[in-house]
């Protein structure tokens, strides 16, 4: 009996809308994907399926599903499938100037191997490496970029720089986010409300409140959702009223924060209150 040749799906690349110096793609390739080339940005990605092989700094690298790729600006590299099945991956392209603003003049982080399994980078890149159909809010992207920059610096061994921070600016940001949590808050308006640039403000907020501005905003939205659900509001209406893009967006954040879906949480919390 002859063995059937597997059916190969066509190669494809999907692009998200570029936002403030950050490009996001998701792609599937078989065989040779692209020849030697280089970017003037960081290329940071995650292999989703198959074996993603590439030449980088005079060696052949292989990235497996779940691995994080970090290609430094201006470093030549190519790309090809490591097996006949092909490979799928997501990638973000970040201008070095953005990391430099976050790191405040420290050396740009450099990872020699191009592929890492470090959990700090896996966690820090999770937000930016979501599917390209997901639209990031301005504060969400800013927080994620700061997370990636600091994680890269930590993994690369870049010395940390301590600063006291501006408590009044952090408090103004907290008050502003509290009042405006049910809508999208832009970075420009938060800078105007606090008198601090976005990266300094991100540092201030983490220093004095132990979390990032976007996570704080998300928690206030989730507080509102829980109040509305207990009052009998539907999931879809609660999500929209609290400022989430849709019900699935709210459910994802709710489950990640509380460890329960909104419906399950309501069953438990409603039962406790009635009891």
Describe the structure.
- There is one protein chain.
- The chain is α+β, with helices and mostly antiparallel strands.
- It has helices at residues 96-103, 119-125, 138-156, 167-179, 187-194, 198-209, 213-230, 235-242, 247-258, 262-274; strands at residues 12-15, 22-29, 32-37, 42-50, 52-56, 59-63, 68-71, 77-81, 87-94, 115-116.
- The chain folds into 3 domains: 12-156, Jelly Rolls, CATH 2.60.120; 167-210, no CATH class; 216-274, Homeodomain-like (Arc Repressor Mutant, subunit A), CATH 1.10.10.
- The longest helix is centred in the middle third of the chain and has 19 residues, at 138-156.
- α2 packs antiparallel against α3 (138-156) and α7 (213-230) packs antiparallel against α8.
- The strands form 2 sheets. It has a 6-stranded antiparallel β-sheet with strand order 1-2-9-4-7-10. Strands 3-8-5-6 form a 4-stranded antiparallel β-sheet, with no helix packed on it.
- The chain has 10 helices and 10 strands.
CATH homologous superfamily of the largest domain - what is it?
Answer: Jelly Rolls
Strand order of the largest sheet: 1-2-9-4-7-10
| Unreliable stretches | none
Number of H- or I-type helical stretches: 10
Q: What's the overall geometry?
A: globular
Give the class-level CATH name of the largest domain. Mainly Beta
> How confident is the prediction overall: mean pLDDT?
89
The residue fraction in helices comes out at: 40-55%
Share in β-strands: 15-25%
CATH level-3 fold name of the largest domain: Jelly Rolls
Main beta sheet: 6 strands, antiparallel
Structural class: alpha+beta
Supply the CATH architecture of the largest domain. Answer: Sandwich
The tally of beta strands, per DSSP, is: 10
